[in-house]
Design goal:
Chain A: Keywords: ATP-binding, Cell membrane, Membrane, Nucleotide-binding, Transport. Chain A: Its main location: membrane. Chain A: It is found in: Cell inner membrane. Chain A: Pfam families: ABC_tran, oligo_HPY. The complex is a heterodimer of chains A (323) and B (286). By secondary structure, chain A is of the alpha/beta class. Chain A is globular, with a radius of gyration of 21 Å. Chain B is mainly α. Helices cover 70% and strands 2% of the residues of chain B. In chain B, α4 packs antiparallel against α5 and α5 crosses α7. Classes of the chains: A alpha/beta (323), B mainly alpha (286). At the A-B interface, α2, β6, α3 and α6 of A face α8 and α9 of B.
């Protein structure tokens, strides 16, 4: 691994002065799938939006840097960013049907990026769009290209959205909960498709999800977020084998297992995710953590590397296995 | 791609209900009459015959029949009515087009850019809506002089806020749709977003407003002409015919009655058709 494709360094985002992303850092290598995991409101999507340079109106980038292959994105003008979006950087969302313009034919929507970024039009663009539809596994692509979104199923729409995102061969694809709205068999197909396209094109993927099953299936590396911070990162196998942050440990314990003994109630993590702006002093997980002591409530644990493969932000990392 | 239409279900086309159909026919007939006025009108609308002043419907002179009677200068009321339809429809069409385009663009911009642009435009909308249209018309005509073009300008100036408000509200909701966001994430610029993604999706509501406004514009034009601020004599206009007919209501009822009926029928037809379009486009009505 030479230098990373995407490097996020101490990124901070605030909404109305309240931090929502509070100094997070991670790298993604060429062709790597990094999964950003966490509960709703932990700042996953805001992180993705900052990478694309398109935060919601109320949100503000208040610190840190995002580097794409050595270029600092926050230093670019809006026009320069527009040239990158859909071209070098692409994104797909979780609402596949609502993400397609209901009044525009599928083929036409896929062609848009080619028109915007490549100046391609007419028959050439049309051909490329149909080829792309075939590539994402849509049968009869010529016919589908001439149809409107309401004529396609949710899974088809998600494939079409992936085709839109990949038509300009971006180097990084951000997938924000790409399978949440789909049923399980379609989920598996879409995940397979994304992995296959990664293998073929070398597009790196930042996969945002709250589904540990998706993480296990897809990711090369995982970054777990809690309350605006990354609290643990590790290669996916290492993380599932051994968690060093109590939150990750408890999170995995709440997932029911088919091979385990049947329990009457599923384990839960006591307490609630703190609201934005109500984050506690010290370690933000401390109010819910079984290992928390006074030290945890006073000082924020740094994200410290462990065994050269990952890092953890916990004062008691070596005791976590005992939970 | 012909095979597609055969295999995939499309929303079935519904025919126009019988309650609306006659009014659609009236509107089409009026449009045809206006377009073909020189062919349809039995006489020249401006030819005077002082010997045939204020004659009742059915009067005959020089081998011509005055089917709807003659006015105070002996002009044929039917011919003037036919040429008057031209003025009414043309003024309404021009002012709806002008105010519709301007209001839509301005409203979309306000909703898309938000911030001070939004405040500026939407407060201007409030101000214009609070200025009495007749007052503005009198001032404008006093400054520019009465003419066809000035009537259109006055009507457009007073009516664009309606479109701006609708375009503004619709754009606000559509701009938050995932497909608009996605297109932005794909590198589309503001012009592409507004013209290709937002405008087609708000067009339905605007078409409904435009139809209902069309009826109103016909009435406004008649009102301005009635006040002498509209199209100037001798050009026939329904409003102006009403105004002169008013003086003779007791002795020659036909001069004011027929233009009044024509106005009533035209506006009623347009409004009923507008209501029908709104019902068709309203998702709750489906």
């Amino acid at each position: 691994m030479s230098h990373p494709l995407l490097s996020v360094d101490e990124l901070r985002v605030t909404i109305g002065g309240q931090p929502v992303v509070d100094g997070i850092s991670f790298d993604i290598a060429q062709g790597e799938i990094l999964s950003l995991v966490g509960e709703s409101g932990c700042g996953k999507s805001m992180t993705a939006f900052s990478v694309m340079g398109l935060l919601p109106r109320a949100a503000r980038l208040s610190g840190g840097r995002v580097m794409l292959d050595g270029t600092e994105l926050s230093a670019l003008t809006e026009t320069e960013l527009q040239a990158l979006r859909g071209n070098e950087l692409a994104m797909i969302f979780q609402e596949p049907v609502a993400s397609l313009n209901p009044l525009m034919k599928i083929g036409r929507q896929i062609e848009e990026s080619l028109i915007v970024h490549r100046g391609l039009e007419g028959r050439e663009a049309r051909r490329a769009a149909i080829d792309m539809l075939a590539e994402v596994g849509i049968p009869e692509p010529e016919i589908r290209a001439g149809q409107y979104p309401f004529e396609l199923s949710g899974g088809m729409c998600q494939r079409a959205m992936i085709a839109m995102a990949l038509i300009c061969r971006p180097r990084l694809l951000i997938a924000d909960e790409p399978t949440t709205a789909l049923d399980v068999t379609i989920q598996a197909q879409i995940l397979d498709l994304m992995k296959k396209l990664r293998d073929e094109t070398g597009t790196a993927i930042l996969l945002i999800t709250h589904d540990m099953g998706v993480v296990a299936e897809m990711a090369d590396r995982v970054a777990v977020m809690y309350a605006g911070r990354v609290i643990e990162t590790a290669p996916v196998d290492a993380l599932f084998a051994r968690q060093e942050h109590p939150y990750t440990r408890l999170l995995l314990k709440t997932i029911p297992r088919l091979d385990g003994e049947p329990k009457e109630t599923l384990p839960v993590i006591e307490g609630l995710v703190p609201d934005i702006g109500q984050w506690p002093e010290g370690c933000r997980f401390s109010p819910r953590c079984p290992l928390a002591n006074d030290a945890c409530r006073k000082a924020v644990p740094p994200l410290a590397s462990r065994r050269d493969i990952g890092s953890t932000a916990c004062w008691h990392a070596e005791q976590v296995g005992a939970i | 791609m012909a095979a597609t239409t055969a295999t995939t279900p499309r929303p079935t086309k519904r025919s126009i209900p019988w309650t609306v159909l006659p009014f659609a026919a009236i509107l089409v007939a009026l449009l045809l009459i206006a377009i073909l006025a020189p062919l349809v009108a039995p006489m020249d609308p401006n030819t005077q015959n002082l010997l045939a002043r204020l004659k009742a419907p059915g009067f005959q002179a020089r081998g011509m029949t005055y089917f709807l009677g003659s006015d105070e200068l002996g002009r044929d009321v039917l011919s003037r009515l036919i040429y008057g339809a031209r003025v009414s429809l043309l003024v309404a069409f021009a002012s709806v087009t002008l105010s519709g385009i301007f209001g839509t663009v301005v409203g979309m911009i306000a909703a898309f850019y938000r911030g001070w642009t939004e405040t500026l435009i939407m407060r201007l909308v409030d101000i214009v809506l609070s200025v009495p249209a007749i007052l503005l018309a009198i001032i404008t005509v006093a400054v520019l002089g009465p003419s066809f073009a000035n009537v259109v300008i006055v009507l457009s100036m007073t009516r664009w806020p309606r479109y701006a408000r609708v375009a503004y509200g619709q754009t606000l909701s559509v701009a938050n749709m995932p497909y608009v966001r996605l297109s932005r994430f794909m590198g589309a610029g503001w012009l592409r977003l507004l013209s290709r993604h937002i405008l087609p999706n708000i067009a339905g509501a605007l078409i409904v407003v435009a139809t209902l406004e069309f009826g109103l514009m016909v009435l406004f034009e008649a009102g301005l002409s009635f006040l002498g601020l509209g199209v100037q004599p001798p050009t026939a206009s329904w409003g102006a015919m009403l105004a002169t007919g008013r003086n003779y209501v007791a002795t020659a009822w036909w001069i004011a009655t027929f233009p009044g009926l024509a106005l009533f029928l035209l506006v009623l037809s347009i409004n009923l058709i507008g209501d029908h379009i709104r019902d068709r486009l309203d998702p709750r009505g489906r």
